[in-house]
Amino acid sequence: MNICIFEDDKYPNLFPLALSRPVFELRTGTQTIREKISRYFPNDSIFLMARDYLIDILKESIENVSFSIPSEPAVFINGRIIPDESLMHSISQLNKGELLFTDSTLIAARVLDGNEFCKKLQEGDFSEFARKEIPAKTILYLWDLIQLNGEEINKEFALFGNTIKSKTNACILNRNQVYIANDVHIMPQVVIDATDGPVIIDAGTTVMPHGYLKGPLYVGKQCLIKANAILYGPTSIGDGCKIGGEVTESIFQGFANKQHGGFLGHSYIGEWVNIGAGTNNSDLKNNYKEVTVFVNNEPVLTGLTNSGTLIGDHSKTAINTSINTGTIIGFSVNVFGEGFPPKFVPSFSWGGGRKCSEHKFADAVETAERVMKRRKVKFSKTYKKMMETIFNQTKRMRQHGT
User: Fold this and answer.
1) Is 402's pLDDT higher than 50?
2) Distance from C-alpha of 268 to C-alpha of 261, rounded to nearest angstrom
3) Are 76 and 113 in contact (CB under 8 A)?
4) Cα-Cα-Cα-Cα dihedral of 145, 146, 150, 155, to 10°?
5) Rounded to whole angstroms, how far apart are CA atoms 202 and 30?
6) What is the CA radius of gyration of the chain?
7) How far is it, in rounded angstroms, from Cα 101 to Cα 115?
8) 126-176 tens-digit pLDDT
9) Nearest to 294 by CA among 391, 386, 397
10) Which residues are CB-contacts of 86 (< 8 A; sequence separation ≥ 6)?
């Protein structure tokens, strides 16, 4: 069977993280949405549909998928779903020419000609198809992924199993909910607390002394958890991160640095982000009211009293930066200066509370290349082209200011 995972027109709601990746490459639990969907189709051909400027990046980074949608029977699945057994069963039972919706959102479709359906998808014309309504979990904003994170870690613990493969002197609470992979190095005086949910520590990770790791928690491959780190679940840390200080109920996409003291809570952090020493974010207003977040500089009520910061790829904060409740920091931003930064900091901005100017593209590229080289990750011409597209697409936001 041909499985086509697609983006719909709601992807801008998931900026700034979705500026540099399709929505199905966003993480919650232990995997990205694409990985979750693909898990249900281990023997099928996977095709990916995304914005044009992201396709070449995907080709460089993902194996065993295709990007030319076939003129053959296919099942289309929305990249904003959070799959589970019930939903996947409903999708598998679709008849040809039948679509699944949740409210007004197309969840899945089984069609005779995948290439022809792509055109229908772009036009939003589904008049010739039969429709079914079913309940399904979908994400609309980044904080939805944070809200679902604990449930996903709990669900995906079964993929790992309660095995402690590496020798450890750690104090482990509720061992049957702990997975520690081979080659994990855990130093003395570490507490792993799986009382309220599983703790998963993936291959090649090091946990330095005096850490407290409380589940539900996923720590990815080749991470470094610094001495005295306090990690409260539900939290997911993608591959290649260096984490210190206090973190609660947050997601790191991967390859991010938060090595020093400071608090981060109810936040989503992109790749190649560096959070300076002493950086703290607020995730609760003093009046305990609902948090408003400015998505693409437009106010959105979150329905939450706890909401932290959302930081796009390649952004940096200076030492002792204070970030207000519900702040969005775009792609390739350098935040510094007195006071709180604005609640919405456009991509490629340079500055902080009193003044923001444009982060020069050439300087941003030079820094990104240097940062990625330190982790032995190639900075390709394709990656530079993607950055240039984001720079041009977000120019209007910088011109209008905040």
Assistant:
1) no
2) 18
3) no
4) 10
5) 10
6) 21
7) 20
8) 888 888 999 999 999 999 999 999 999 999 999 998 888 878 889 999 999
9) 397
10) none
